[in-house]
Design goal:
Layout lengths: L2 E6 L6 H6 L2 E4 L2 E4 L2 E4 L5 H10 L5 E3 L3 H12 L4 E6 L7 H15 L5 E5 L4 H16 L4 H13 L1 E6 L4 H5 L5 H10 L2 E7 L2 E8 L2 H19 L1 E8 L3 H15 L4 E4 L2 H7 L4 E7 L23
Length: 304
């Protein structure tokens, strides 16, 4: 049986990989002033320019249940199974809406095989799980094996990032006004991560340079201990610094990270200028040389 992979737009998967691996993407929605966009309908640079000029803080919304049903039904009616991996259920209602769509599909197609997975994250920490599920599906693995490929990647992954400013986290309700004020006055830069589906503070340092050093050193320590699966460099409308961070990784490991910009949904909550990395390590059966990296990590410079 053919197995199809579905995710949402906050994975920020490069379009070339989506085409190559037959991955369907359901977009979330962003609302800016009187304008509303599906996330995949607006160029990142255009959005961030609009956001800077708009006096209102942008808001976001999950896809409609019909968006899920349309894609699920396309595959189920063709006799295909579906493995769908979505944004953390603690960050968005996207996952719960997908479960509702699955239940509605099973009422129409009782024999349908639809697996819904909570990525417990976003951006390419989720995207890496999607890619490994899609690779397993393309290799002819069973539904159970495809699901395991995604879940194993989720279990071995990490996302570390630093915002340029705290304003957007404050406006989006992710940070209290007092914490934002103290952080700004003291020039504190929180290094953030995602733990059990929620953005949390990994550490606090006194400059962006120290924050990036901490991110890089944590990553290198993980790789030294466990081996590298793949690594992605993320930036939010900060391409030059994204390339600089990727160059530092390449210098240390002789691996060229893929550089992927983060779009409006996550970007409006974290803010332009943010930098980070998403990666996963090898499991015990795969560990060997640090340089024994999947060729897919060398896609290099891909953009949405």
């Amino acid at each position: 049986m053919t197995i199809r992979i579905v995710t949402d737009s906050t994975s920020y998967l490069p379009r070339n990989l989506r085409r190559e691996l037959n991955i369907d993407v359901i977009p979330l929605n962003v609302h800016l002033g009187d304008e509303s966009f599906r996330e995949d309908e607006i160029d990142n640079h255009v959005f961030y320019k609009k956001m800077a000029a708009c006096k209102q803080f942008p808001t976001t919304s999950q896809p409609a249940v019909q968006d899920f049903i349309t894609i699920f039904e396309r595959h189920v009616s063709a006799g295909e199974a579906v493995v769908a991996i979505f944004l953390s259920s603690k960050m968005s209602g996207t996952y719960s809406t997908a479960l509702l769509a699955r239940q509605m599909m099973l009422e129409r197609y009782p024999q349908a095989e639809i697996e819904i997975i909570d990525s417990k994250s976003n951006s390419m920490e989720m995207g890496l799980a999607v890619l490994n599920a899609a690779r397993a599906a393309k290799a002819g693995k069973t539904l159970a094996e495809v699901k395991i490929a995604a879940e194993h990647t989720i279990d071995r992954s990490r996302f570390l990032f630093v915002p340029e400013k705290l304003d957007y986290l404050k406006k989006g309700g992710r940070l209290s006004g007092a914490a934002a004020l103290i952080g700004s006055v003291l020039q504190i830069k929180p290094v953030l991560t995602v733990t059990e589906g929620v953005a949390t503070v990994f550490s606090k340092v006194r400059s962006i340079e120290r924050a990036l050093d901490l991110i890089l050193n944590t990553f290198l320590s993980d790789v030294k201990e466990k081996g590298l699966g793949e690594v992605i460099v993320h930036h939010i409308n900060n391409e030059l610094e994204g390339y600089r961070l990727a160059s530092r990784i390449e210098k240390e490991l002789h691996v060229t990270p893929t550089i992927i910009p983060i779009g409006p949904i996550i970007g409006c909550h974290v803010g332009p200028g943010a930098l980070g990395i998403a990666y996963y390590t090898k499991d015990a059966s795969e560990r060997g040389s640090v340089n024994d990296v999947s060729a897919a990590a060398a896609v290099g410079g891909a953009a949405l």
